[in-house]
């Protein structure tokens, strides 16, 4: 298992547990995430969910075999299905009934940044590294990346990061509206738990309030599911191009 789920006192903690690859996502890990999130939703005692990465690192993106190593045919059934599971892990986070908080230490890159931005709130380390990273490795952004970035930080910041390759730290993330608070690296998870614990005292109220919050503050101008599909075709083209099937 590469995803750990612990529940106590109304708070669920989901940990990406593949530190040897900096918690980079694979279809297997994404599938385990989705299953864990289903368990969170089925447990009415849970009012808040904290998502973190093991080893002091959040998520370095998709594993080199997913999708960058998809080869010459990203439309192959197995590859297409695997990518769909990775995308679903982001959007499923966005549908969790509990209040969701990302505790971001180390790097959040590409798909890892999508995962962080899928939550309701983020607490980040001051020395965290947040970047899109897709174009840097020859891939079109995916997973609704433009929507996730722009709905929080605005069009200019989304352009600078997703197109211009800008990398930011935790302090800059707060200034841009991509995170609520930047703290010392060793305080990130404890601070995220403080927020979670406060909300989780009344799980039923937390879930009702989260539902209203999301209805009133979203969705973005382009629905997330639409954005995922809009980005999918050019991302597949970029995979094939990168894999040598030009």
From TrEMBL:
<dbReference type="Pfam" id="PF00378">
    <property type="entry name" value="ECH_1"/>
</dbReference>
<dbReference type="InterPro" id="IPR001753">
    <property type="entry name" value="Enoyl-CoA_hydra/iso"/>
</dbReference>
<protein>
    <submittedName>
        <fullName>Enoyl-CoA hydratase/isomerase family protein</fullName>
    </submittedName>
</protein>
<dbReference type="InterPro" id="IPR018376">
    <property type="entry name" value="Enoyl-CoA_hyd/isom_CS"/>
</dbReference>
<comment type="similarity">
    <text>Belongs to the enoyl-CoA hydratase/isomerase family.</text>
</comment>
């Amino acid at each position: 298992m590469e995803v750990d789920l612990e529940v106590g006192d109304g708070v669920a903690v989901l940990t990406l547990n593949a530190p040897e690859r900096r918690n980079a996502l694979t279809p297997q890990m994404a599938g385990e995430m989705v299953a864990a999130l289903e368990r969170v939703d089925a447990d009415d005692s849970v009012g808040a969910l904290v998502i973190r990465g093991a080893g002091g690192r959040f998520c370095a993106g998709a594993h080199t075999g997913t999708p960058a190593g998809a080869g010459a045919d990203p439309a192959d059934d197995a590859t297409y299905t695997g990518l769909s599971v990775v995308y679903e892990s982001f959007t499923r986070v966005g549908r969790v009934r509990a209040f969701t908080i990302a505790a971001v230490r180390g790097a959040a890159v590409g798909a890892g940044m999508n995962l962080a931005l899928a939550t309701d709130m983020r607490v980040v380390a001051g020395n965290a590294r947040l970047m899109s990273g897709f174009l840097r490795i020859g891939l079109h952004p995916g997973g609704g990346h433009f929507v996730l970035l722009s709905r929080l930080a605005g069009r200019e910041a989304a352009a600078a990061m997703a197109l211009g390759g800008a990398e930011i730290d935790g302090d800059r993330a707060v200034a841009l509206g991509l995170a609520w608070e930047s703290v010392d690296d060793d305080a990130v998870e404890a601070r995220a738990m403080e927020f979670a614990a406060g909300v989780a005292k009344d799980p039923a109220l937390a879930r009702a309030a989260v539902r209203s919050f999301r209805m009133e503050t979203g969705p973005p101008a382009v629905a997330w599911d639409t954005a995922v599909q809009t980005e999918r075709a050019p991302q597949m083209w970029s995979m094939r191009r990168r894999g040598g099937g030009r």
